[in-house]
Design brief:
Blueprint (H helix, E strand, L loop, with lengths): L10 E8 L3 E3 L10 H4 L2 H11 L2 E7 H16 L5 H12 L1 E5 L5 H5 L6 E4 L2 H10 L4 E5 L2 H9 L5 E7 L7 E2 L10 E8 L4 E7 L2
Parallel strand pairs: 1-6, 1-7, 3-4, 3-6, 4-5
Antiparallel strand pairs: 2-8, 7-10, 9-10
Helix pairs in contact: 2-4, 3-4
Length: 203
């Protein structure tokens, strides 16, 4: 391979879903049903294997507001595990793109987190990120963004953690009418919470 040829960055979509396919219980993205799993030691190990290979994170408005209200406290809490604090430090400093039609840059700058910017055009932004140098790009549990990128065929890897819970309603992760084929890369069981983590890649 020529020295100046660089492999294109992957877009990895990471989401927690219920057995009946929902990623949150409603428009405010209530994740209380998943917190036992998210905060378990085995889950922390699994997530660390994903985010350490990433240099850009993409989030939507709801997750941005939720993350920035919760994670600084977790990061600064002496009772938090070392992995939780490491993840919090990474979230605070990694390059972040917030997809929103309502947030302004001043809204982002008021938080404790740095290296964050607003983007209005999701598809154009992700295409530009894929072509730019860097490590992989991670979409953090934002259903609306994942749906749009799946429809645009811009997701290379889909990391789904299925929890042994049915929600009966809420926000579905996968869009209606989408036909696509994926290859199972690996699967991991998390005995403490009964979750199954599935990693799919485009063939």
């Amino acid at each position: 391979m020529p020295a100046n040829t660089q492999q294109q960055r992957k877009v990895i979509a990471d989401a927690v879903v219920s057995m009946d396919g929902y990623t949150s219980t409603g428009p405010e993205d209530d994740m209380s049903w998943a917190m036992e799993h998210i905060t378990s030691e085995q889950s922390e190990i699994m997530y660390e294997g994903i985010w350490r290979g990433v240099s850009t994170a993409v989030v939507g408005r709801v997750n941005w507001e939720g993350f920035t209200s919760v994670w600084p406290g977790l990061t600064n809490d002496p009772a938090s595990s070392a992995r939780t604090r490491d993840l919090g430090d990474w979230l605070a400093t990694v390059d972040k793109v917030v997809i929103s039609t309502t947030l302004q840059q001043t809204d982002l700058d008021r938080t404790e987190w740095v290296n964050a910017r607003v983007s209005r055009d999701l598809e154009a932004e992700v295409r530009s990120l894929k072509a730019a140098p860097g490590r992989d790009i991670l979409v953090l549990n934002s259903a609306s963004i994942i749906k749009a990128l799946l429809k645009a065929d811009l997701i290379d890897e889909l990391s789904l953690t299925v929890l042994p819970t049915t929600l009966g309603g809420g926000v579905r992760l996968l869009p209606d009418g989408l036909s696509s084929t994926w290859r199972l890369s690996h699967a991991t069981t998390i005995p403490t919470t009964g979750a199954v983590a599935l990693c799919y890649r485009r063939p």
